[in-house]
Amino acid sequence: MTAVQCTECGRMLGYNAALCRACIDELVEQLLRVPALLYELGITRAGLGRTGAPSAGGRPAEAPLPIRIVGRRLPGESAVQRLETAVIGWARVLAEELGVTPAVGIAYLVQLAQDRRRLPGSTVRSDAAALATPVTAVEQAAVWLAHHRRELAQHEAAPELARDIRGAVGALAAVIWPAERQYLGLCDCVREDGEECGQELRAEVGQAYVDCRRCRWRFDVAQLKAAALANADDRLYKVDDLLRVLTALDEPVSRATLWRWAQQRRMEPRGWQHADDYGVRITDHRIGAGDAQVYRLGDARKLATKDENEGGSAA
User: Fold this and answer.
1) Are residues 158 and 106 part of one domain?
2) Strands of 292-296's sheet, edge to edge?
3) Among residues 10, 95, 98, 113, which one has the fewest Cβ atoms lying within 10 Å of its Cβ?
4) pLDDT at residue 124 above 90?
C-alpha cells in the first residue's frame, strides 16, 4: 500500500490496511446493527413500534409482518433492497477472494445473527417474536462480514465497501426513525405563468440544502432560516408568548428576565393585544381591562444577544 492516510477520515493507516482502525470499527458496528434494524423495521411495518420495556401481563408480543406483501410496496422496501444489494454483494466479493463460502444457514451463524437482533441498551429483543421470525440471508451475511475484520481492513475496495454499508444502513434507519423535519416557509420561485410556486419547504435538522418538490429549485437552508427570522423579528407578542417563541428558536430567555426588561422599559411595548367577539387584534391603545402589552420579538432577541456578549445570561 502506498497511501499512509485513511481516505475516509484522514487518520494514519496501519500496515497494509485500506481503512484506519476507527473506520473499520465503525464498519463492523454498522454490519452488526443489520439484524436489529431489519427486525425493528418489521415492528415498524406492523405498527408495533416500542420505545421501552413491555409492561407485565397484557397481550403477548406479535410477530412482525412478512418482508413482502404481493401487490403492495411496504415502507422501506427500497431501503431493504439497497441493504441486501450492498451486504450480499460485498459478502460474495470477499468470499470469492478468500476462496470460501459464507456459512449462511449454518446453526452457529443463524444464532449469531439472531443474538444481534437486540439493539444496544434495549431490553425487549429477546421476546418470542424475535425468536420465531426466521433469520434472513442478509442478516447472516452482515454478521459474517463483521467477523472478517482484518480481511475487510486490508481489502483494496474497503473504502467503497464502508461507504456502501454506511449509506444503506443509514437509509434503513431513516425509515425506522424518521428525522425531524423543519418547516422553512413557501417556495417563492416564479413559474412560467407568473405565479409563485408556493410549495412548502421542509428539511431535516442539519440539512444544508433543500429542493422544492414542485419546481425543483434548490434553496440554502441557512439563508431560508435567516430570512424567516428577519420576518419574525417584527412580530409582536405578549411576554408569555415571547417566552414560548424564544424557546422554540433555541434562544431561551427566562420569564423573570423578560418581565425585568419590560418593567425597566429596556424592551419597549409596541401596542396592546385585545380580544373580543371579532377575534384577537393588536391595537395602539388599551381598549379593555384584560388587554396585555405586546413586545417586538426582534427587540427581545437583541437584548438577549447584548446580555450574552456582555458576559451575562438571559436564561
Assistant:
1) yes
2) 236-237, 292-296, 269-276, 279-283
3) 10
4) no
